[in-house]
Specification:
It contains three helices and six strands; from the N terminus they run ββαααββββ. The strands form two sheets. A four-stranded antiparallel β-sheet has the order 3-4-5-6. The protein has a two-stranded antiparallel ribbon with strand order 1-2. Strand 5 and strand 6 form a beta hairpin.
Length: about 190
Amino acid sequence: MTDTIEVEVDGVVEGGPTGRTPAWGFPAAIALVSVLALVVIVRAVAPGLRSGPTPAGGPAPSPPEVSVTAPADARVVAAREALAAWGRFATTGDLSVVDGWVAPDGPQYRKFTEEARAGAAGDQTTHVVTVSDATVLSDDGHEAVVALMAHWTQASQSADDFTWDVVLRFDITGRWIVWTVRDRPPGGETQ
């Protein structure tokens, strides 16, 4: 009886036949990992499949609840973010906080510049602007109007509500930015 001693050095078997790794090893490992991944995905996506059979006469299990959230309208998001930046500008007086949200060549930015020069902005009290009831009134692909209610809260003072039309322009970076903000009359007609 002859015994063969095999020694493996750096992944190479010395003194033994070549090709010791079974040909089915790697494909079997891939198949096993794939099956396990599929089981995890199915259990995560379809939790209703986990429940067993319903008892006789019992109610059938209800399907899992699915929540679908519509993507936020880019024009409404731009108006909301610009007004939040306006609140930060009112707090700090720093025009850079409205950069990217307000068109630098537009009338609203000119008003901000005048307020900053006059010292009317930057009172260091926190101004918070929240938006509700936002509706896109018009959009021609270059300019859009968003009607909204702006709730302006200033630290240690009563809150103010404003009904505004926010006029947005589509800029060269592919984003909506505020051109101007105007009061919306009580009847809701655009000025």
